[in-house]
Amino acid sequence: MIKIFHLTFVLLSITSFVGRIYFAEKRPEMLEQKWIKIGPHIVNSLLLLTGFILVFQGQWLSGEYGWIVAKIIALLGYIGLGMVAIKNQGALRWKAFAGALACFVYIAIVAVSKNAFFFL
User: Fold this and answer.
1) What tens digit of pLDDT does each residue of 64-81 get?
2) Of 105, 10, 16, whose CA–CA distance to 48 is shortest?
3) Rounded to whole angstroms, how far apart are CA atoms 68 and 110?
4) DSSP alpha helices (H): ranges in the chain?
5) How many angstroms separate the CA atoms of 103 and 97, rounded?
6) Is 10 in contact with 40 (CB distance < 8 Å)?
7) Rounded to whole angstroms, what are the CA distances from 68 to 35, 39, 91, 93, 114?
8) CA 42 – CA 16 distance, rounded (Å)
9) Contacts of 111 (CB under 8 A, 6+ apart)
10) What pTM does this model have?
């Protein structure tokens, strides 16, 4: 059940990120609305919470856990690049957006494969 919640929050998180990029590009005044400012933080907090619960439920810390560390590092990259993408304009926005999406895809692949170096 927690996994379903976690996957739902993943979908909501990426959707809200893409939506905020759209608003930043086409309708920046929308980013000033309170629910658009607060909503993604709530979703992402619940995403992290369910992720931690899954880690402890699956007892993944008892064995090889390098893939979890890799996901956390990629998550920090996703957050940083996402902030750059939302707050900037032009080519920098789109490069940061592409980088954030690449981090997201990496996190998803590592979550499924449990291998931080799946590409080797």
Assistant:
1) 778 888 998 999 999 999
2) 10
3) 8
4) 2-26, 34-57, 66-87, 90-113
5) 10
6) no
7) 31, 26, 32, 28, 8
8) 11
9) 71
10) 0.86
pLDDT per position as a tens digit, 12-36: 999 999 999 999 999 999 989 999 9
Tell me the one-letter amino acid at 118. F
**Closest of 11, 8, 6 to residue 53, by C-alpha:** 6
The label of the residue with tokens 């981090």 reads 103
Closest CA to 68 of 102, 110, 105: 110
Residue type, 29: E
67 vs 104, 108, 109, 112, 115, CA distance in Å? Answer: 14, 11, 10, 10, 5
What is the per-residue pLDDT for 114? 86
Output the six-digit token pair for 78: 């996703």
d(CA 36, CA 32): 7
Q: Which residue has the tokens 């929308």?
A: 30
